[in-house]
Amino acid sequence: MGKMQIECKNAALGYENHVIMKGLNFIVNQGDYLCILGENGSGKSTLIKALLNLKPQISGEIRFSKEIGKNEIGYLPQQTIVQRDFPASVREIVQSGCMNRCGLRPFYNQEEKKLASDMMQKLEITHLEKRCYRELSGGQQQRVLLARALCAARKMLLLDEPVTGLDPKATNEMYELIAKLNREDGITVIMVSHDMHAAVKYASHILHIGGRQLFFGTKPDYLKSKVGQAFLAVSGGDTDE
Q: I need a surface site. Which of 64, 77, 163, 185 has the fewest CB within 10 A?
């Protein structure tokens, strides 16, 4: 087991004093692949904002280790139509992930340019670096945004429904890519999803929410739980386990 990176203790989340979700207790350790499951409206987006330090919890505690401080989580948001039409080159978008490292400097240094090149190579998009982002396929665009997120932080990735709108082939490639980053590079992955089958195939841990915490634990324990079995029955089909 790796070092603890995030610890959530009896947290309640919401807006002002309106509680959307309560009773959150979970730990994310280095190298974990945590999938956050829940129906629409279950509080997933509220939890994302809390993990990105964009929204303080109403009560309880969300504690980050020193190595995963503010601005240390690479974030891949859900794609919007506006983002898909962004008129910039692939390299420009990937390098923009380095902005937090620049401080007041109005340019990228050699180290940051090399980091962007390395991330493009890792995600096999080097040949696209001069292409305009909006000309790319959905799967290619997601690889660009993932490379950008890795430039921002190389220890933890937070992914919000990263395969929305992708065709089955691109979806499978995206999942395999994320799993490889977790397995080979030791990057901690937190993925928000309603895709039960992907969670069961790739995750090491599951957090299932629905206005409150319904389950947190390892994938095998989730598959044995009433919550997991009920959600799997609704999702339809068997697991690979």
A: 185
Q: What is the pLDDT of residues 173-194, one digit of tens each?
A: 999 999 999 999 999 999 998 8
The full set of domains in the chain, from first to last, is: 1-73+156-165+178-222+233-241 (3.40.50.300), 79-152 (no CATH)
Most distant pair of Cα atoms in the chain: their distance: 54
pLDDT in tens, 31-54: 999 999 988 778 888 899 899 888
At 96 the three-state DSSP class reads helix
Per-position DSSP letters for 169-205, written without gaps between them = HHHHHHHHHHHHHHHHH--EEEEEES-HHHHHHH-SE
Q: 220 — alpha (psi -120 to 50), left (phi > 0) or beta?
A: alpha
How many residues can be counted in the chain? 241
Q: How far apart are CA 94 and CA 21, in angstroms?
A: 34
